[in-house]
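Field: sequence (string)
Field: structure_tokens (string)

Example rows 1 and 2, in order.
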Amino acid sequence: MEEIEMRVFEDLSLQNYKRWIIPFVDEVLEYTKLKKGKILDIGAGPGLVVKEFASRSHHFEVIGIDISPKAIQLAKKNCDGLGNVRFLVADVYQLPFPERSFDVVVCKDSLHHFDNLRKALKEMLRVLKKDGFLYLQDLRRDLPKYLLERSVPPDTILKKLQFYSTRAAYTKQELEKTLRELHIHNPQIRTRKVTDQLKKKYKESGIDFVQLKEGFQARYIAIIKPK
């Protein structure tokens, strides 16, 4: 992203922190049962996912990488005061970590930025421990029409971000095909649904049910174990 786009994205992320960040981190921690260990956030942007993970427990060491120096600058600002975080300017295609370094690797809403999906996933899996989890979330290119229409025409920075990110996104089938090429079989790839339990839980947190449902419908998640 350009600097002005990153600023718009940061503002939007801060405004939607509860709806975008908290359910994502909740899902990762509930599924992986992680109580301590190392977490890597790929495409960390303004650092809000790192911030939420690090705030949950001082037993987590959370590292965020992004190719944009401006993003890393914003991330450091947003995580000021947290002692268990670290940020690096780094390329997903050449992660600066040894093999089997992380208990959990996450990539939230950044997969569509990677032109070489196979190479990006291979690197994420390389740095993941044998008993670790790779947790992906991204926009769907085949998202419901009513959601895509909200960004048409793409005549503002926000609408451009939404429209072109969606157009660049991968489908579930494309992701699954690439994982098969990497000999990863039977990954969990699905679109999340708002259950009555989640509706009740997040209503108490002040998260609007309709907005939460739309956010889920616009994305898919993939939970992957290394081979």
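Row 2 begins here:
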Amino acid sequence: VEVRLSGPEAPTILDAPLFLPGGGTILFRAPAPPQASRRNGPERLHGVRSASAHDLPSEWWTVPAGGGIPTLLTHLQASGLYASLSPDGRWLVSFSSRGLFVMAPDGSSLRMLTDDLQELDGTVDWLP
């Protein structure tokens, strides 16, 4: 099933999709909206454009499962984001290059649990 994103800030690089409780919303990670770049005259004349890669710092976003305009939830600028939904659906725990944090599925109540992961890579999950 393809979910089409719309709107001026719709990301083009998406990863780690997760259905939120009820199935009507999808959480995903993607880079933050690009900031307007200031290119000089020769750069504009020659068509120089900024490059991006999949390992850019990312944020958590949501979009309706049927597609539409995505909503930016966080401002973490973290790479390697991975989320796991709590068994009761009330919390998301995230592992990232910046640390371990928890938040509500709508992005509220964001709290850093630890910022000292010594540059480890990994994932996270809830225990029953």
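free_text_note (row 2): Residues 7 and 69 are 5 Å apart (CA to CA).
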